Predict the structure.
Amino acid sequence: MVKLIALYKQPEDKERFDEHYFNTHAPITSKIPGLRKMEVTRIVGSPMGESEFYLLCEMYYDDHDSLQKAMRTDEGKASGRDVMKFAGDLVTLMIGEEVDE
């Protein structure tokens, strides 16, 4: 499996962020063709105390080709435009591969 990982820094207005993320962005993203699973984790701290991060979203695809095809769909493009509009300064996007060892 391949994951597109979105890691969000702490927003200034958490209530406004959550409102948009859970009521607008996540529903757009969940409709992307080829998306196998989407897991959202709220970061509540770190072993050293508070965390600079607020939210983590892992979006699972079968392989790199499936991820690339998904990002080219209308739904994938809409999700990308939306995240840049409401959280472009907060989000870091990464691609990862699951390791079975």
Remarks:
- Helices lie at 14-30, 64-71, 74-87.
- The longest helix spans residues 14-30.
- Residues 31 and 75 are 7 Å apart (CA to CA).
- DSSP finds three helices and four strands in the chain.
